[in-house]
Structure formats: structure tokens, C-alpha cells
Amino acid sequence: MLSRASPGLWITLCLYCSCRVGGGDAQNAKEVILLDSKAQQTELEWISYPPNGWEEISGLDENYTPIRTYQVCQVMEPNQNNWLRTNWVEKGDAQRIFVELKFTLRDCNSLPGVVGTCKETFNLYYQETDSEVGRGLRENQYVKIDTIAADESFTQGDLGERKMKLNTEVRIIGPLARRGFYLAFQDVGACIALVSVKVYYKKCWSIIENLATFPDTVTGSEFSSLVEVEGVCVSDAEEEADNSPKMHCSAEGEWLVPIGKCICRAGFHQKGDACEPCGRGFYKSSSQDLQCSRCPAHSFNDREGSWRCDCEDGYYRALSDPPSVACTRPPSAPQNLVYNINQTTVGLEWSPPADTGGRNDVSYRVICRRCSWEPEECAPCGPNVGYSPAQSGLVDTYVTVVDLLAHANYTFEVEAVNGVSELSRTQRLFAAVSIATGQPLCDGYLD
């Protein structure tokens, strides 16, 4: 006949063997541990009912550190109903809970005289509550999760050879709606050593992807759940237009392929998972640009994080000029201005300026002044004078001035202008010629 002391002896020995082999598992980085009996070295003090059922005992792990476990081996008497309940577990944000059980189980055929009363399974239950309910245990309040069977059981011979037959089973419960829960184990007549109980849930840990931060995210309540998460752009970044950053957290705690992205705003460029300011002498005018660029010709900056460069003295940038173009200046005066006069009509021709100011948008304008016989007493010609093809905005290097007064003195100024001429604070540069109308037909030339 099997004594009560005998099962305790083989279980203690088996725990020592099993923990030496299975005790070194690393925690999965995707797991948030809610309960780990193996990590607690003091008494667990779980509820056992009836008192002579499950028994808390001590074992040693591979580092000879004490661990607390539970055993039961009531195989001689039929109709066993031994319950073991954990302490209350607060679930936090979890909806889907994983329960990992590590246990050893004795082969009933290796125990003489227990045919019909020995079992090789036990049952796993849970109860949801919003708070602790005391030390009472009511079976009808528990929901069955599963019947747990061993993949491998051991015999008396395995004990002699110190062979380990550790079983690991994982079950999932959820979705959970209350603040916490209890786990319960029901023995119906087996020889079991419950080596460890680990309860955890999975989450996708915070990451930075495509310059967007995705926070810690608890997985969904179903196996196929995908939790959509909006990313938040890192400092000095902004969302790409119509392409907000999103990722999906899978039920296994893995981030899936990202959608959308953030990009570094103007004045900043990407370096790793951050946006860094452009250095002195560099700029980035748009978030759409990938890298910072060196300041264009005749421009500079002496600060970090610039979206444009300032023009040097005497150089300008037109309002329509993008920050990527060089700063420019007004052109010099037209060259080789000549005229011919036919009574009250004057034709003017000239050559382009020697210096266009670095621009290709040069045009010309003509200023007409009627002068008295006294020096420096001139006034604008007025609206009665005509210009062909135009007075300003001339692309070609000639103009005809008509409807001048006879026997009058005139001065004509021809100025080359470009896109920054109006911004210049320097003196105007132009070519000029003075004529008198009403004289016999003649040609003149001005160097």
C-alpha cells in the first residue's frame, strides 16, 4: 500500500531535477508578467481546499535558489476533488491573458494498487472579480479553462536515473472585463507537482518607426485582433501630407508593417530616429527635402536649424525666388546707347549690360524727360508721348519714341532691370542721351 509520505518524497526529488533543466528560460520581451510563482521565494499562501489536498513545498532551482511549488498525490482514494486557488491577480490593461504551467506528473501504471483511482490530468479554472473576495472558495463561481494533460509522465525508474519529465502547457483566457481574476487548479486524483505558474499578457513595446513614436500597446482580446495605433511625430518632425503614420499591434505583440510616416520639418534633417538641425552655412527649405544643402552663392547663415540663407550686402532674392537659388543683384547700365532723330520722332538702340546681376530676367525701361533751356530743369514727358513697342518691360534692345514736341530739348534714360532691381537700395544705373527736336534730319552717337 502506498503511504502519504512516499508521494512527497518522489515529488521533491522530481522538482529538483526539473528545475535544474527548465529554470533558465528568459522572459519574452513581449510579455508583461502578472504572476510568476517561481520568482517568489517566500510562501505563496494560496488557498488549498480541502486542507489535506494540495501541499506547498520548497524546491531548488538550477542556482540552488529556493522556489515554492505545490504538489498533490491523493491516488489511493476515489472521487478526489482537491482545489488550489492563487491569490488575486490584477490584470491592468490586459484583455487576453496567457497562463503558462510547468508541472510533472506520475505515470499511474507505475503506481501499484491504484487502478481506477489514479488520474493523469487536472483541470484549470478562473474567476473574474473587481476585487479580492476573501479566502472562501465556491466551485460554482469558477469557469473552466481546460483539462490539462501531460505530454510526458515519469515512472519509478525515471526517479532512480534522475530523468526530468517536465511538461509545459499554455492556455489563454479572455476577453476579460473586470479588474482582476483568480486561477484555480482542480485535482481529481493525480500525482502532480505544479513546478511554476506564470501569468502574463502581451504588448507591443514602444518603438520609433519612420520618425514616429508608437507607444506601448496592449494586444487585442482576440487571436486575430489587430490594434491600430496612431504614431506621434518625433521632435522637429511633421506628418507627411495625407499620409499619417500608423501601425498595427498584432495579437502576438509584434508591430506590423508601418503605414505613412513623418518627415523632418524645414531646417532639420533625419539622423537615425531623430531630426537634427542643419548646421551653420546649411539650410533645408522644405520638409520634402531629404538633406540639408550648403547656402547658395552670395548667401550665408550663422545659426543652426535654418530653412533659408540670408543674402550678402548688395545681393537680393526676389519674392518669387526659391531659397535654393543664389542671391543676385541689379544689372549694370545698358551699353552703346545710340539714337536717330526724325523731326519729332526718336529711335533708341543699345546693347545689353555687361553684368546681368546673375539673373536671366533682364528687361529694359525708358524714362523721358523734357528739359528747359536752364540746366537741370527737367520734367517727365507726360502721357502725350508714345513708345513703340512699350516704355517698360522691353525684352528687345530698341524703342521708338513718337509725338515729341518740336524745337524742344529731351533727355532719355535707358535702364536695365531684373527681378531684384526694386529691392536694391543702391543708386540707379542707366545710360542717357540728350537731344533737341525740330532740327534737320541727322544721326548721333553716344559713347
From TrEMBL:
Keywords on record: ATP-binding, Glycoprotein, Kinase, Membrane, Nucleotide-binding, Phosphoprotein, Receptor, Repeat, Signal, Transferase, Transmembrane, Transmembrane helix, Tyrosine-protein kinase
GO biological process, one term: axon guidance
Domain Fibronectin type-III: residue ranges: 330-440
Topological type in the membrane: Single-pass type I membrane protein
PROSITE patterns (alphabetical): EPH_LBD, FN3, RECEPTOR_TYR_KIN_V_1
Top EC category: transferase
Catalytic reactions on record: L-tyrosyl-[protein] + ATP = O-phospho-L-tyrosyl-[protein] + ADP + H(+)
Name of this chain's protein: receptor protein-tyrosine kinase
